[in-house]
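ok so I'm stuck.
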Amino acid sequence: MVFEDRFHAAKILADALENYKDSKDTVILAIPRGALEIGATLSKILGLPLDVVLTKKISAPGNPEFAIGAINREGDLVFRDEEFKGPEWQNYISEQVELLKDKLDKRFLQYHPDGKALNIKNKTVIVVDDGVATGNTLISALELIRKREPKKIIVALPVGPSDTIERLKKYADELICLYEPEMFRAVGQFYKNFDQVDDQEALKLFNEAQK
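replied:
not stuck anymore, here's the structure
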């Protein structure tokens, strides 16, 4: 299965999520930036409100590619391993929390100039992305979403390798994945058009979905 683009993938996902159309207690959360093309399309087709999942990874000292944890704007933390909660990490984690929360606050105000985000407590939340590879970023986001006490978490994805999809099931109440290929190298190989979505375009998609 190869999708034309993210909008095409979203339309197919919408069919799989038909039962949630116009539901009063359901919201869509998209992980910026690429997933906003998916989320905005689903929001329009299903008649559901859209918001963004804003998290930042906490990188290991001197190794920005290696995530040891993640944080959301509310200050909730998740860690890759219990060792990173130890006292020897406390000063470094505190510094990172302060730095990353500042970045998250600025990003939040880009999307919510009025300072108000959707309340997801006791709501059914559909979390969307344009696909997964390792799933680590999405797992961190799901753990942080769970701390906000939604009633149910549904993960909706166009594509991902079966081993990752199996891992994700532990963090969601329901998981929909359109395609689990046997041979998987990268998410982009399953799209004819997988252009990057820049901040300006992502914000435009989000704002249009609020109308």
